[in-house]
């Protein structure tokens, strides 16, 4: 049985290592044209990176720009674990949760 550690159980070095491995798998999946696999690795890498973010520096009610997206902004309403919950500005009015690693602090 494969006993893989959960992200929450990893230290900083392990999180950085797994993130690098996931990014490499993303690159290979993209090159092979397997986009669904690419998206899975991308999401896992973002979540792993979120465990490296100090969530105490995120202010509730503040608007943050999102990393890697064409000018897009997100208003944080609450933090739960490694996800920021709130609303995209000029987006749908539906609350969504995004990994905190997407917030440009």
Provide structural commentary:
It is a single chain. This protein has two domains: about 5-50, Hypothetical protein YfhH domain (Helix Hairpins), CATH 1.10.287; about 55-100, Hypothetical protein YfhH like domains (SH3 type barrels). Helix content is about 35%, strand content about 20%. It is built from two helices and four strands, in the order ααββββ. α1 (about 10-30) runs antiparallel to α2. The radius of gyration is 15 Å and the shape is globular.
What would the keywords be for this entry?
single chain, 105 residues, alpha+beta, Helix Hairpins, SH3 type barrels, 4-stranded antiparallel β-sheet, globular
Topology diagram in text:
Layout: H1 12-32, H2 35-50, E1 63-65, E2 73-80, E3 83-88, E4 96-99
Antiparallel strand pairs: 1-2, 2-3, 3-4
Helix pairs in contact: 1-2
Count of runs of 4 or more consecutive helical residues? 2
Structural class: alpha+beta
Q: What is the count of distinct domains?
A: 2
- Point out poorly predicted stretches: none
Summarize this structure briefly.
The chain has 2 helices and 4 strands, in the order H-H-E-E-E-E. Helices cover 35% and strands 20% of the residues.
């Amino acid at each position: 049985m494969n006993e893989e550690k959960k992200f929450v159980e990893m230290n900083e070095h392990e999180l950085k290592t797994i993130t690098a491995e996931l990014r490499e798998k993303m690159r290979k999946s993209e090159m092979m044209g397997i986009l669904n696999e690419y998206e899975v690795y991308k999401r896992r890498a973002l979540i792993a990176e979120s465990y490296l973010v100090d969530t105490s520096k995120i202010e509730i009610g503040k608007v943050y720009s999102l990393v890697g997206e064409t000018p897009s902004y997100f208003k944080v309403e609450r933090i739960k674990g490694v996800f920021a919950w709130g609303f995209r500005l000029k987006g749908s009015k539906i609350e969504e949760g995004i990994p905190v690693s997407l917030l440009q602090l």
